[in-house]
Amino acid sequence: MRISEANWFEVERYLERDDRCVLPLGSTEQHAYLSLSVDSILSEKVGADAAEPLGVPVFPAVPYGLTPYFMGFPGSVSLRLTTYAALIRDILDSLYKTGFRRVLIVNGHGGNSPVQPVTMEWMEANEGARCRFHDWWRAPKTWACVQEIDPVASHASWMENFPWTRLPGRKMPDEQKPFVPFDKLRDRNAAGVRDLIGDGNYGGVYQKPDEDTERLWSVAVGETRALLEGDWS
């Protein structure tokens, strides 16, 4: 159940029998030739696909996150860590106040990881609150599937290139881009990051056959669903 496709009466009836929900976290940032909303699109869709047979509500993805290193690319938006931490805490507090107790955060952007202590503080402050933070793309089974298909994969490469993140009519390079030197990404500003990574792909081919990405997606959805329906005790 996507919250965007439900009314409050339906959510109230759901809460009479269950208290789980999915909160996707995304970002608005460069993804080379793919949509600037890749992380939001993927986190919400993998959450919705995982939750659909369970009837668990899925909230709209939070579309902005922590991405200061991409501010050299127009269209990217980054929040301050203090702003983002406060935003996530306000969302979690709202969910608790209206009756949700078990929250699966499906995160689509690695830069958002510093907000995880907020979930711990929230659980400590609210009786019965549970929160799982799930980086869907690097969960064990999903990442193992990436490695099986092609170990040269990273940000804005084939592993984020799905029919729902592609932009119609945009031609992509055919070659495999070498990995950027990650150690050099840590000590430079956004302009320096852009100079280093060029078009934004961190390394890997830009697109794989759909049968490869369909297999990856199936594993990711299954792994996400297992977290949602697993033991919360």
UniProtKB/TrEMBL annotation:
Q: Cross-referenced Pfam families, in alphabetical order?
A: Creatininase
Q: Name one GO biological process term.
A: riboflavin biosynthetic process
InterPro entries named among the record's database cross-references? Creatininase-like_sf (IPR024087), Creatininase/forma_Hydrolase (IPR003785)
This protein is called what?
A: Predicted amidase
> What family does the Swiss-Prot or TrEMBL record give for this protein?
Belongs to the creatininase superfamily.
User: Molecular function terms in GO for this entry?
Assistant: hydrolase activity, acting on carbon-nitrogen (but not peptide) bonds, in linear amides; metal ion binding
Q: Which cofactor does it need?
A: Zn(2+)
* Taxonomic lineage of the native organism: Bacteria, Pseudomonadati, Pseudomonadota, Alphaproteobacteria, Rhodobacterales
Organism whose genome encodes this protein:
Sagittula stellata (strain ATCC 700073 / DSM 11524 / E-37)
